[in-house]
Amino acid sequence: MLDDGYLRRVKVDGFVAVGPEALGFADVVRVARDGTEVRLTEVAVAEMVASRGKIEELAEGETPAYGVSTGFGALATRHIDPALRAQLQRSLVRSHAAGSGAEVEREVTRALMLLRLRTLASGHTGIRPKTARVLESLLNAGITPVVHEYGSLGCSGDLAPLSHVALTIMGEGVVRDADGVLMDAAEALKQAGIEPVELAAKEGLALINGTDGMLGMLVLAIEDLTRLLKVADISAAMSVEGLLGTDRVFGADLQALRPHPGQAASAANLRRLLDGSGIMESHRDGTCTRVQDAYSLRCAPQVAGAARDTVAHAAMVAGRELDSAIDNPVVLADGRVESNGNFHGAPVGYVLDFLAIAVADLASMSERRTDRFLDVARNHGLPAFLADDPGVDSGHMIAQYTQAAIVSELKRLAVPASVDSIPSSAMQEDHVSMGWSAARKLRRAVDGLSRVLAVEVLTAARGIELREPYRPAAGTGAAVALLRESVAGPGPDRFLAPEIEATVRVVADGSLVAAVEAVIGPLA
Asked: Which NCBIfam families does the entry link to (predicted)?
């Protein structure tokens, strides 16, 4: 579904090299989640030295240059005396480190730091190599600046989040060390043997003017959704099987009549997952009077396929952004230093919102399949709510409530953030992207999807086992078998929350997909 060039360009020597070329998706994930170390390349250092020379020429000249010898935003009309320019950079970072609210996740901040380092390594920002080296050292020492939930409008980049990182480079602010201990940045840097820097002309701006936060969250979401889309096919197959549906609608010839690539991939997965099912075979004898299955069963590859194509589009946009150098102004190859609007987060914000829509719809269909299992009027011979003794036991009645509550929230999270704009900086920045907000709500949506799919898997597994003596397909059977390693099968009511969480874990960590693929081979 996704271009392996984007997803799998991983360095093999134990670190991620950071230079002018684009990072791969897997590079970002390794650094953000696994703590893989980074190294600036020699080419990157040479590019930074060359562009720095251009900035120093401007700093010494008489012509005002934005970010070098002027104020910022609506204050760009003031020419700053050379004696005040170091203070200008310190003041910029301190004033812009104005985040508020909950601390964002470590993996998000590490992704943001890596992506900013990559832009610095492009040679278009005019930063000194020694300043970039501090950011490199922070990543390698596992020091993570405290970045807050609120503060970015997604235009002029993720200013407040990146400013909290820049503050750490100056030896100020609050961080967490490699063990997660909260401490002053100055103490953390001292313990790690990292010397903070006094920012020179333009360096403060170069550190904070990028889409790195929203892009980092987009890359992490694509990684998670690539896995969850396989889970969605597994859970759909389990439901089709347990609800005595038909797999004929997933035939390749039928899918070819509407040649969307995601739909074809999802349908192919469903065919393989259901291949050889004894449960499916049990109702192929002509006694079944149903002509068509409900949409939530019959149209599973159409919806999951559309979600796959949406992820593929988002990956294309993210790949382009990973190959970008976002700063304002930028140093061009011919030595010119030019203002621009590349920091506007619209391209990233749009696909973050688009993904939230796909996530909500995929979860909505999953919840509808779960609900069918619980209703005796629609589950074709299974007990009410899959309960052991309906009336005495409630079975999975309230598990569906949990699903429904999450789906309702996912629908709210699908409302686009990127259609909003609140002018800032005295109307100089009069249209903003809200891309950071789109990214934050997508992270919550991805978590919600994993929980909705987990409830479907848990419910469908019980439904499949209640079809005994008929046996499931090898693929769906592998999913049931993995689940039974941590969750008991049908029986009287038990404390259900831990069973849901155990299923969420195998969905979110990839164990469920791995167990199925170990039996039937890789899913598309």
From this structure: hutH, PRK09367.1
From the list 252, 239, 249, 245, the residue with the least C-alpha distance to 280 is: 245
DSSP string for residues in 241-255: HHTT--SGGG-HHHH
Q: Looking at the chain, how many residues does it have?
A: 524
**Residues 6 or more apart in contact with residue 2 via CB below 8 angstroms:** 222, 226, 311, 312, 315
Cis preceding-peptide flag for 469 (omega within 30 of 0): yes
Mode of pairing for the β-strands spanning 337-338 and 330-331: antiparallel
Could you give the CA distance from residue 167 to residue 477 in angstroms, rounded to a whole number?
53
**pLDDT, tens only, 290-344:** 779 999 999 999 999 999 999 999 999 999 999 999 998 899 999 888 889 889 9
Please report the pLDDT score of residue 7 as a whole number: 35
Q: Which two tokens stand for residue 108?
A: 């998000």
Instruction: Supply 383's token pair.
Output: 């007990």
The one-letter amino acid code at 235 reads S
Other CB atoms within 10 Å distance of the CB of residue 310: 22
219: its two tokens: 């890359």
Q: Which two tokens stand for residue 261?
A: 């690539």
Of 486, 317, 466, 264, the residue nearest 379 (C-alpha): 466
Catalytic option among 66, 150, 295, 401 = 66
Q: What is the pLDDT of residue 425?
A: 81
How many Å apart are CA 163 and CA 324, to the nearest integer?
Answer: 20
- DSSP three-state, residue 48: helix
Least Cα distance to 367 among 375, 60, 102 occurs for: 375
CB 305, CB 347: distance < 8 Å: no
User: Tokens representing 293?
Assistant: 């299955």
CA distances from 212 to 55, 69, 107, 156, 216 (A): 23, 25, 13, 11, 6
pLDDT digit string, tens, across residues 66-97: 777 777 666 667 777 777 777 888 999 999 99
Read off the pTM. 0.94
CA neighbor of 240 nearest in space, from 70, 426, 475, 5: 475
Is 401 designated active site? no
Asked whether the beta carbons of 74 and 427 are under 8 A apart, the reply is yes
Q: Answer for the pair 208, 157: CB distance below 8 angstroms, yes or no.
A: yes
What type of residue sits at position 443?
R
- ∠ Cα 314 441 113 (to 5°): 70
**In the beta sheet, which residues pair with residue 15?**
37
With CA atoms as reference, report the closest residue to 231 among 18, 503, 466: 503
Tell me the domains of the chain and their CATH numbers: 4-210 (1.10.275.10), 218-326+357-520 (1.20.200.10)
